[in-house]
UniProtKB/TrEMBL annotation:
Cofactor: binding comment: Binds 3 Zn(2+) ions.
GO BP annotations, alphabetical order: base-excision repair
Domain Xylose isomerase-like TIM barrel as annotated: residue spans: 20-273
UniProt entry keywords in alphabetical sequence: DNA damage, DNA repair, Endonuclease, Hydrolase, Metal-binding, Nuclease, Zinc
Known function: Endonuclease IV plays a role in DNA repair. It cleaves phosphodiester bonds at apurinic or apyrimidinic (AP) sites, generating a 3'-hydroxyl group and a 5'-terminal sugar phosphate.
InterPro entries found in the cross-reference section: AP_endonuc_2, AP_endonuc_F2_Zn_BS, Xyl_isomerase-like_sf, Xyl_isomerase-like_TIM-brl
Binding positions (Zn(2+) 3): 179, 224, 226
Protein name, as recorded: Probable endonuclease 4
Binding site for Zn(2+) 1: 67, 107, 142
Gene that encodes it: nfo
GO function terms (MF aspect): deoxyribonuclease IV (phage-T4-induced) activity; DNA binding; DNA-(apurinic or apyrimidinic site) endonuclease activity; phosphoric diester hydrolase activity; zinc ion binding
EC number: 3.1.21.2
Principal EC category: hydrolase
Cofactor: Zn(2+)
Length: 279
């Protein structure tokens, strides 16, 4: 079974996101925990979340993935923005308890001139202050493309963050195919080598989710430009090999391609047709 979905609008409510996912033959989905460019989260309707839980159970969904807002920067040089990041993530994890056992993804952030070491200190300070055994959500660090002063474009940086977090059994990784290709990990010509490196540095047991994207930009460009599946520099053949790899095929895949719902439906159909269920 290929576990695949796309990004859906949370403004429609949890139950409707589940129904919308089913309408395009998806068995998971991603959503923003709140306005991606803002700070406010909608009040939780327990009847709505309970209805989603029933949909997930009845249709054998893979874990759903909440994405933190883009405005969350845990390693900002502004103390107020770091406090905002901390409060936002803490609030989001409380909301995720209404749909326990799922995933929460965030961008490690940008150090804006302070340097990677200082940035990692800020990120781990935030995680150490928030993570708690009471939470039933796994928090994922997303691999980044390395544009500007982004943190997390190397496996080593991700590993350092994990190592400095006390409750790091609550942490995992979301690998973004566009991002790592742009960051210099050649998943087109050397997927085995990339996975071996990931396993050696981070550990494949930490890999909990994949953002499945093609890339508008060339290999090692350090640019973050997602493209539709098969229309970019990664290409359809490499994507098909990726989803069928025995070390990856069990993971949930979340499309973040530049599409509307019908475009996502077409990509899901294409990928299901090219997925080998016998592993």
């Amino acid at each position: 079974m290929l576990n695949i979905g796309c990004h859906l609008s949370s403004s429609k409510g949890f139950k409707n996101m589940g129904k919308e996912a089913l309408s395009i033959d998806a068995n998971t989905f991603q959503f923003f925990s709140r306005n991606p460019r803002g700070s406010k989260a909608k009040a939780v309707d327990k009847n709505d979340t309970d209805a989603l839980i029933e949909i997930l159970k009845d249709n054998n969904f893979a874990p759903v993935l909440a994405h933190a807002p883009y405005t969350l920067n845990a390693c900002s040089n502004d103390a107020g923005l770091r406090e905002f990041a901390k409060n936002t993530m803490a609030s989001d994890l409380e909301i995720m308890e209404y749909i326990p056992g799922n995933l929460y993804n965030f961008h490690p952030g940008s150090h804006v001139g302070q340097g990677v070491e200082t940035a990692i200190d800020f990120i781990t300070d935030m995680l150490n202050s928030i993570l708690d055994e009471k939470y039933n959500t796994t928090v994922l660090l997303e691999t980044m493309s390395g544009k500007g002063s982004e943190v997390g474009s190397s496996f080593e940086e991700i590993r350092t963050i994990i190592d400095r977090v006390e409750l790091n059994h609550k942490l995992g990784v979301c690998l973004d195919t566009c991002h790592i290709y742009s960051a210099g990990y050649d998943i087109v010509n050397d997927l085995e080598g990339v996975l071996e490196k990931f396993d050696k540095i981070i550990g494949l047991e930490r890999l909990k989710a994949v953002h499945l994207n093609d890339s508008m930009m060339p290999f090692n460009s350090r640019k973050d430009r997602h493209e539709k599946i098969g229309k970019g520099t990664i290409g359809l053949d490499a994507v098909i090999k990726f989803i069928n790899h025995p070390k990856l095929c069990h993971l949930p895949f979340y499309l973040e391609t530049p599409n509307e719902l019908d475009g996502y439906a077409a990509e899901i159909k294409l990928l299901r047709e090219n997925f080998n269920d016998i592993k």
